Amino acid sequence: MIELQDKDNDLYVIKINMQEVHTLDVPDLKEKLQQAIVSKGIKKMVIDLSDVKMITSSGIGIFLNINQSLKSQLRLASPNQEVQRVLELTKVTSMIKVFDTVDAAINSF
To answer: Could you give the CA distance from residue 62 to residue 77 in angstroms, rounded to a whole number?
Structure first.
Protein backbone atom coordinates (compact mmCIF):
# COMPACT_ATOMS: atom_id res chain seq x y z
CA MET A 1 0.00 0.00 0.00
CA ILE A 2 2.84 2.42 0.84
CA GLU A 3 6.59 2.33 0.32
CA LEU A 4 8.94 4.44 2.47
CA GLN A 5 12.28 5.90 1.42
CA ASP A 6 14.49 7.65 3.97
CA LYS A 7 16.10 10.72 2.39
CA ASP A 8 17.93 11.88 5.58
CA ASN A 9 17.25 14.94 7.76
CA ASP A 10 13.88 13.54 8.90
CA LEU A 11 12.67 13.66 5.27
CA TYR A 12 10.86 10.67 3.81
CA VAL A 13 9.38 9.97 0.41
CA ILE A 14 6.29 7.82 0.64
CA LYS A 15 5.01 6.22 -2.53
CA ILE A 16 1.35 5.23 -2.56
CA ASN A 17 1.21 1.90 -4.40
CA MET A 18 -2.49 2.03 -5.22
CA GLN A 19 -4.15 2.92 -8.52
CA GLU A 20 -7.34 4.13 -6.85
CA VAL A 21 -7.80 5.63 -3.42
CA HIS A 22 -11.47 5.14 -2.53
CA THR A 23 -13.34 6.06 0.61
CA LEU A 24 -13.09 2.46 1.88
CA ASP A 25 -9.27 2.58 1.58
CA VAL A 26 -8.91 5.78 3.56
CA PRO A 27 -8.85 4.47 7.16
CA ASP A 28 -6.17 1.88 6.40
CA LEU A 29 -4.04 4.29 4.35
CA LYS A 30 -4.34 7.02 6.97
CA GLU A 31 -3.32 4.60 9.73
CA LYS A 32 -0.28 3.39 7.78
CA LEU A 33 0.87 6.96 7.06
CA GLN A 34 0.39 8.05 10.67
CA GLN A 35 2.23 4.98 11.97
CA ALA A 36 5.14 5.80 9.65
CA ILE A 37 5.26 9.41 10.90
CA VAL A 38 5.34 8.32 14.54
CA SER A 39 7.63 5.29 14.24
CA LYS A 40 10.21 7.00 11.99
CA GLY A 41 10.02 10.47 13.54
CA ILE A 42 9.15 12.00 10.17
CA LYS A 43 9.25 15.80 10.14
CA LYS A 44 9.09 16.35 6.35
CA MET A 45 7.29 14.18 3.83
CA VAL A 46 6.89 13.93 0.08
CA ILE A 47 4.01 11.76 -1.08
CA ASP A 48 4.64 10.25 -4.52
CA LEU A 49 1.32 9.99 -6.36
CA SER A 50 2.72 8.62 -9.64
CA ASP A 51 0.84 5.29 -9.32
CA VAL A 52 -2.47 6.86 -8.23
CA LYS A 53 -4.90 7.18 -11.13
CA MET A 54 -7.96 8.27 -9.15
CA ILE A 55 -8.60 9.66 -5.67
CA THR A 56 -11.76 10.58 -3.78
CA SER A 57 -12.23 13.67 -1.64
CA SER A 58 -11.92 11.57 1.52
CA GLY A 59 -8.53 10.38 0.26
CA ILE A 60 -7.49 13.99 -0.16
CA GLY A 61 -8.61 14.63 3.42
CA ILE A 62 -5.73 12.41 4.55
CA PHE A 63 -3.24 14.81 2.95
CA LEU A 64 -4.79 17.81 4.71
CA ASN A 65 -4.66 15.99 8.04
CA ILE A 66 -1.02 14.95 7.58
CA ASN A 67 -0.02 18.41 6.38
CA GLN A 68 -1.46 19.84 9.59
CA SER A 69 0.31 17.30 11.80
CA LEU A 70 3.61 17.94 9.98
CA LYS A 71 3.19 21.72 10.35
CA SER A 72 2.90 22.25 6.57
CA GLN A 73 5.98 20.17 5.78
CA LEU A 74 4.13 17.92 3.32
CA ARG A 75 4.66 18.00 -0.44
CA LEU A 76 2.74 16.07 -3.09
CA ALA A 77 4.57 14.88 -6.19
CA SER A 78 3.86 13.42 -9.62
CA PRO A 79 0.04 13.52 -9.76
CA ASN A 80 -1.52 12.61 -13.10
CA GLN A 81 -3.92 15.08 -14.75
CA GLU A 82 -7.03 13.58 -13.14
CA VAL A 83 -5.58 13.64 -9.62
CA GLN A 84 -4.16 17.15 -10.20
CA ARG A 85 -7.65 18.32 -11.25
CA VAL A 86 -9.19 16.91 -8.06
CA LEU A 87 -6.46 18.59 -5.97
CA GLU A 88 -7.22 21.92 -7.66
CA LEU A 89 -11.02 21.58 -7.42
CA THR A 90 -10.83 20.80 -3.71
CA LYS A 91 -8.43 23.75 -3.18
CA VAL A 92 -5.75 21.45 -1.74
CA THR A 93 -3.18 23.17 -3.95
CA SER A 94 -3.70 26.39 -1.96
CA MET A 95 -2.62 24.60 1.24
CA ILE A 96 -0.15 21.92 0.08
CA LYS A 97 2.57 22.44 -2.50
CA VAL A 98 2.32 20.10 -5.48
CA PHE A 99 5.28 19.31 -7.75
CA ASP A 100 5.66 17.56 -11.11
CA THR A 101 8.47 15.33 -9.84
CA VAL A 102 9.61 13.81 -6.56
CA ASP A 103 13.02 15.49 -6.94
CA ALA A 104 11.44 18.92 -7.32
CA ALA A 105 9.38 18.29 -4.19
CA ILE A 106 12.47 17.18 -2.23
CA ASN A 107 14.42 20.24 -3.40
CA SER A 108 11.63 22.55 -2.19
CA PHE A 109 12.64 21.93 1.42
So the answer is: 15
List alpha helices for 1-109, DSSP H.
26-40, 57-69, 81-89, 102-107
Position 98 scores a pLDDT of: 98
At 9, is the pLDDT very low, low, confident or very high (cuts 50, 70, 90)? confident
d(CA 79, CA 84): 6
Average the pLDDT over 70-79 and give the result: 97
How far, in Å, CA of 67 to CA of 93, rounded?
12
Of 87, 69, 68, which is closest to residue 77 (Cα–Cα)?
87
Q: What is the total residue count of the chain?
A: 109
What domains, with CATH codes, occur in the chain? Answer: 2-107 (3.30.750.24)
pLDDT at 50 exceeding the cut of 90? yes
Count Cβ neighbours within 10 Å for each residue of 37-63 and write b for 16 or more, e otherwise. Answer: beeeebebbbbbbeebeebeeebbebb
Q: What is the pTM of this model?
A: 0.95
